[in-house]
């Protein structure tokens, strides 16, 4: 089960969800239509302030595409982007779209473990970083990625460092001037080279015919295993979610969006995000760091009307605003999503920050739920919203039932979904038959979200828990296996289990319960050594544990397939009680 079956595709076209617009068309149209309006405000990779009109953004995008071409990237290639919130990020994304290059949306916090997986799975032609960023040398990081890939027999990607580009505003090459790549900029490309899909032809089925229905980029899955999963989103499906999101949120030319979350995250890109704002001719303001101080300054200076936060940031804004009474008078809506917002914090946002709350429960695989701006307070403050589309199909099943029978109305169950902008399969070498796809999708094409929810008669969903081996640390998703794997490889660790413990600020914090080998001294020193080991193994910074616990024995579980999951639950329950 990979591409949407024709019967569904036909329905989505007939309903007007899937239209014949590619991202190349989108960029060309909006940057022309809104040419003189302000598109992007932020800083460049050197920290210099930049303001771009839509016309200037188009020029910057063309220049970025030309630089990728100069690095040997051709239409149809995948390019891993691991950039912070700098204006070059927007230029590179739109440049890729114009050129028919497929971005792979990584994060600047990713390290060689993640980046080498993305490069290998996507067979990336280049990796784009901002050299010296936030205290980390990303050029050296790319060297380490290349080393790992070579060791696996994979050709390493070209390094593209936006810090080595001319400053925005200086004269730039135009992509049409590159005779080596006559297709660049025409938008007439975007078909994946078959060799590109990890050397396999069996994933052909992931790509539907017709340009707008081809894959436009790869998003990242939060992940539930040690193996990264890439999410192939098509022009048609994603642009539908962007248009519908902009409409639900009532965005217009006057919208000024402050992007505080990592710009490449699906929330920041599309719910309604950067693309939703560019769709309507509004202004995107990029915050280089997520601190309330920076955000409050930008809100006041740029008269920001709209922003998106994860719950810990919403809390940070509330406590900061109580201390310094910033001018947030322009702010109309604060969206909160990515992790469960507590009802108590939700109720404080309006009174303290003076903006309306919108809860957003979304996933890079597709489905996005919003509370609507005219929903009664009760729903806005206590639910995570309802789906974008009338054709988003929701199924809530018994997580303990192997046949996945639906639970009675209103009861808690595991959420499965299918619809016009939800994928039918990950971008995997084995295509539909790949194990990641067999586990994550039902035979009839529903995506198993791993979330436990309850549905109200209004259709609003309440997220009540999770049935996947993942920790949601304030919106950042970490698969338990990613941390356990490198620890289990150590001779002084007999066993290690990662559990999420309730945390008043993060929602959940990462705790590793370790059974040391006999005779090994446990304690803070061992904890620090294990953290160092994880860092040295090349794991993303945000996945490093918050806490270690050492036990001589683990509680006993029933032997069986899910025993490790049960063990996690037992340990989490035991540690939370303490
Ligand atoms: C509880 N859990 C939530 C919420 C996401 C918009 C907003 C968020 C994401 C995102 C996104 C939650 N309450 N309000 O892509 O477009 C958890 C669920 C879900 C997983 C998806 C968007 N909002 N979650 O967070 O792909 O567990 O997308 O399945 O990063 O985050 O994570 P991700």
UniProtKB/TrEMBL annotation:
<dbReference type="InterPro" id="IPR050237">
    <property type="entry name" value="ATP-dep_AMP-bd_enzyme"/>
</dbReference>
<dbReference type="Pfam" id="PF13193">
    <property type="entry name" value="AMP-binding_C"/>
</dbReference>
<keyword id="KW-0472">Membrane</keyword>
<feature type="domain" description="AMP-dependent synthetase/ligase">
    <location>
        <begin position="30"/>
        <end position="427"/>
    </location>
</feature>
<keyword id="KW-0436">Ligase</keyword>
<dbReference type="InterPro" id="IPR020845">
    <property type="entry name" value="AMP-binding_CS"/>
</dbReference>
<dbReference type="InterPro" id="IPR045851">
    <property type="entry name" value="AMP-bd_C_sf"/>
</dbReference>
<dbReference type="InterPro" id="IPR025110">
    <property type="entry name" value="AMP-bd_C"/>
</dbReference>
<feature type="domain" description="AMP-binding enzyme C-terminal">
    <location>
        <begin position="482"/>
        <end position="561"/>
    </location>
</feature>
<dbReference type="Pfam" id="PF00501">
    <property type="entry name" value="AMP-binding"/>
</dbReference>
<dbReference type="InterPro" id="IPR000873">
    <property type="entry name" value="AMP-dep_synth/lig_dom"/>
</dbReference>
<protein>
    <recommendedName>
        <fullName>Long-chain-fatty-acid--CoA ligase</fullName>
        <ecNumber>6.2.1.3</ecNumber>
    </recommendedName>
</protein>
<comment type="pathway">
    <text>Lipid metabolism; fatty acid beta-oxidation.</text>
</comment>
<feature type="region of interest" description="Disordered">
    <location>
        <begin position="162"/>
        <end position="186"/>
    </location>
</feature>
């Amino acid at each position: 089960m990979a591409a949407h079956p024709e019967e569904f595709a036909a329905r989505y076209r007939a309903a007007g969800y899937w239209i014949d617009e590619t991202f190349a068309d989108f960029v060309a149209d909006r940057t022309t239509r809104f040419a003189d309006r302000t598109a992007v405000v932020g800083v460049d990779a050197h920290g210099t302030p930049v303001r771009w009109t839509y016309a200037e953004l188009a020029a910057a995008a063309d220049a970025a595409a030309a630089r990728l071409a100069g690095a040997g990237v051709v239409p149809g290639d995948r390019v891993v982007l691991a950039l912070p919130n700098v204006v070059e990020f927007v230029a590179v994304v739109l440049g890729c779209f114009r050129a028919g290059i497929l971005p792979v949306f990584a994060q600047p916090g990713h390290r060689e473990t993640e980046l080498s997986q993305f490069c290998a799975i996507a067979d990336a032609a280049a990796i784009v970083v901002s050299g010296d960023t936030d205290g980390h040398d990303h050029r050296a990081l790319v060297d380490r990625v290349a080393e790992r890939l070579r060791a696996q027999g994979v050709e390493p990607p070209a390094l593209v460092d936006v810090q080595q580009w001319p400053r925005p505003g200086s004269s730039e090459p135009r992509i049409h001037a590159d005779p080596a790549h006559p297709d660049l900029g025409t938008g007439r490309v975007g078909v994946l080279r078959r060799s590109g899909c990890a050397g396999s032809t069996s994933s052909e089925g992931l790509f539907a015919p017709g340009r707008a229905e081809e894959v436009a980029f790869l998003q990242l899955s939060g992940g539930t295993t040690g193996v990264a999963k890439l999410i192939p989103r098509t022009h048609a499906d994603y642009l539908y979610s962007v248009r519908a999101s902009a409409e639900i949120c009532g965005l217009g030319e006057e919208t000024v969006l402050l992007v505080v979350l990592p710009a490449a995250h699906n929330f920041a890109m599309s719910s309604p995000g950067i693309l939703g704002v560019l769709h309507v001719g509004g202004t995107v303001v990029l915050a280089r760091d997520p601190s309330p101080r920076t955000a409050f300054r930008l809100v006041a200076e740029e008269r920001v009307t709209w922003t998106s936060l994860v719950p810990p940031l919403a809390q940070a804004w509330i406590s900061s605003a109580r201390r310094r009474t910033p001018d947030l008078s322009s702010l109309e809506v604060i969206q909160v999503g990515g992790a469960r917002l507590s009802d108590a914090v939700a109720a404080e946002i309006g009174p303290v920050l003076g903006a309306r709350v919108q809860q957003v429960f979304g996933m890079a695989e597709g489905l996005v739920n919003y509370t609507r701006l005219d929903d009664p307070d009760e729903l806005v403050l206590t639910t995570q919203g309802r789906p974008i589309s009338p054709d988003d199909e929701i199924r809530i099943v018994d997580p303990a039932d192997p046949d996945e029978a639906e639970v009675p109305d209103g009861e808690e169950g595991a959420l499965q979904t299918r619809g016009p902008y939800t994928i039918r399969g990950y971008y995997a070498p084995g295509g539909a038959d790949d194990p990641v796809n067999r586990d994550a999708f039902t035979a009839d094409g529903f995506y198993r979200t791993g979330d436990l929810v309850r549905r109200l008669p209004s259709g609003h969903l309440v997220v009540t828990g999770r049935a996947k081996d993942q920790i949601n640390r304030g919106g950042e998703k970490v698969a338990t296996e990613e941390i356990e794997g490198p620890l289990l490889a150590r001779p002084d660790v007999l066993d290690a289990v990662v559990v999420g413990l309730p945390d008043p600020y993060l929602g959940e914090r990462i705790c590793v319960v370790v059974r040391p080998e006999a005779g090994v001294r446990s304690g803070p020193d061992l904890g620090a050594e294990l953290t160092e080991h994880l860092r040295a193994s090349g794991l993303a910074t945000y996945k490093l544990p918050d806490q270690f616990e050492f036990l001589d024995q683990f509680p006993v579980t029933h032997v069986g397939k899910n025993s490790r999951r049960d063990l996690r639950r037992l340990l989490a329950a035991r540690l939370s009680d303490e």
